Amino acid sequence: MRLRLALLAIGLTLALLAGCGDDSDDDGTATSGGADFELLGTWKGELSQKGLDPFRVTATIRDLDDPAANTVHYTGIDCGGNWTFLSEAEGGVQTGDVTRVTPVYRFRELIDRGAGGSCKGEGIVTLTPQGDDRLGYRFRGGGIVSRGVLSRHG
């Protein structure tokens, strides 16, 4: 009888644990540290990069499992490509004397179209929420660094 109760208790514990640990909802809402942030959508912003005038970016994130659904286009340099979701981690954002924990999203960017075939390259895009409708943006790759802030569009 004790063995049956012990096995039942272990089975219930395993069943409860099996429902834990998912970092994203099926609707694309990423969660981290208990705070929900809707990453899916269209994002636009102005970026700066050494040696270039500021330029605009439009990124549409539709599906974290399908890079073809995540498109990016840079005006001014007239290049585009896709983002492949790599990871979500917790990071800290410093505002004055306060540091708050926020998710940090990483994507591999592959640029393969635009500007007469001269648009080629890849790197890592890091997105950090700055409120409900803004993302800090940083790109690193091939010796290039660009930064900016994206706002939710539409």
Your description of this structure?
This protein is mainly β and 154 residues long. The chain has one domain (24-153): Lipocalin (Beta Barrel). Helix content is 11%, strand content 58%. The chain contains one helix and ten strands; from the N terminus they run αββββββββββ. The chain has one helix at residues 2-18, and strands at residues 29-32, 35-38, 41-49, 55-61, 71-74, 79-95, 98-114, 121-129, 134-141, 144-153. The strands form two sheets. It has an eight-stranded antiparallel barrel with strand order 3-4-5-6-7-8-9-10. Strand 6 and strand 7 form a beta hairpin. It is globular. Residues 1-34 have low confidence and may be disordered.
What are the main properties of this structure?
single chain; about 150 residues; 10 strands; disordered N terminus; globular; mainly beta; Lipocalin; two-stranded antiparallel sheet
Reconstruct the topology from this structure.
Layout: H1 2-18, E1 29-32, E2 35-38, E3 41-49, E4 55-61, E5 71-74, E6 79-95, E7 98-114, E8 121-129, E9 134-141, E10 144-153
Antiparallel strand pairs: 1-2, 3-4, 3-10, 4-5, 5-6, 6-7, 7-8, 8-9, 9-10
Strand content: over 45%
CATH architecture: Beta Barrel
Query: How many β-strands, per DSSP?
Result: 10
Please state the oligomeric state of the protein chains shown. Answer: single chain
User: Which class in CATH terms?
Assistant: Mainly Beta
* Class from secondary-structure proportions: mainly beta
Helix content: 10-25%
Largest sheet: 8 strands, antiparallel, barrel
Could you give the distance between the termini? Answer: 61 Å
Rg (CA only)? 20 Å
Put simply, the count of helices is 1
Poorly predicted runs are 1-34
| Strand numbers in spatial order across the main sheet | 3-4-5-6-7-8-9-10
CATH topology: Lipocalin
